[in-house]
Write a structure and sequence with these properties.
- With about 280 residues, this protein is mainly α.
- It is about 75% helix and about 0% strand.
- The chain has helices at about 1-40, 40-45, 60-90, 95-105, 110-130, 135-145, 150-160, 165-175, 180-190, 190-205, 210-215, 235-240, 245-275, and strands at about 50, 55.
- A hairpin with a 4-residue loop joins strand 1 (about 50) and strand 2.
- The protein is globular.
């Protein structure tokens, strides 16, 4: 009897979570999609954003969001996987117990702190070294790449640890080196967990707001290089929702709808590329 009650309770909780997600999704699209039909696709996907004049072009924000996210993944994936492989396969137990909590602690640092560090250290360095304003795609990509490291490292590490030791023993028995075992055996075996970590990190990067507002420059234009300022969809929503009304408010919800679709599309692409089942 108790097992049946527990089963029903857990089933209810599971469906409640799914229902909450569906309701949030419905609300966002219900608020934003009508504007798309009202202003037209050409207006909405142009580069002219001036809500007070009924111009709601978000193309520059979409491109900015994608550039910052891809840049963050270029920074975060190699360092994250390298760190996870080192901790799981090459480090001693003492090093594991010391470094892993420190890396996981990075996930608890508020994004505004990362943004402040970017303003004080990274932005002046980019300005002095490469020129330009310093507030740029590059600065945002580096900071977001650091911010997604704990997610990628933790999940990838757990994926490597979950691979049975018999895989390693069998590989060593046929004469493979430690590195050959990692690359040719453990990496494919842990692929599913690695992809999950990358997808979660990507979601964190494209959805980040505060740090991006502080260091990306918030320029409403398509960046010509990684040293140009940029504004993302999340930055626009955060900066303007407080005073938006009417079609302007609906346009921000439409930005959220587009962001939702982009995240789903990027997840599908990541899964297809890696062949995850």
């Amino acid at each position: 009897m108790k097992d049946k009650i527990a089963e029903k309770v857990l089933l209810f909780i599971a469906f409640s979570a799914i229902l909450s997600l569906l309701l949030i999704t419905f609300f966002i699209f219900q608020q934003g999609v009508p504007l798309l039909f009202k202003v037209g696709v050409g207006n909405f996907f142009s580069t002219h954003w001036s809500p007070t004049k009924d111009h709601f072009g978000i193309l520059s924000m979409i491109i900015g969001s994608l550039m910052v996210t891809i840049g963050a993944l270029i920074v975060g994936i190699p360092f994250g996987l390298a760190c996870a492989i080192f901790l799981a396969e090459f480090s001693s137990p003492i090093v594991q117990k010391t470094l892993k909590p420190i890396i996981e602690l990075l996930a608890g640092i508020p994004s505004v702190v990362y943004g402040f560090i970017g303003i004080v250290i990274l932005v002046p360095f980019i300005r002095q070294t490469f020129g330009g304003p310093g507030f740029s795609v590059l600065a945002a990509s580096i900071i977001l790449g650091i911010m997604i490291l704990p997610t990628i490292v933790s999940i990838s590490y757990d994926a490597f640890i979950a691979v049975p030791n018999t895989y390693r023993e069998g590989s060593f028995a046929v004469g493979a080196t430690k590195w050959q075992t990692v690359v040719m055996l453990l990496f494919p075996a842990a692929r599913s967990g690695i992809v999950a970590g990358i997808i979660l990190g990507m979601g964190r990067a494209i959805g980040e707001t505060m740090a991006v507002i502080m260091i990306a420059g918030n320029a409403l234009k398509i960046p010509g290089s990684i040293f140009d300022s940029v504004r993302t969809l999340t930055s626009t929503i955060a900066l303007e929702l407080g005073y938006a009304a009417g079609d302007h408010r609906a346009a921000l919800f439409a930005c959220g709808s587009v962001l939702f679709i982009i995240i789903i599309a990027l997840n599908i692409v990541a899964i297809r590329i890696t062949g995850r089942k």
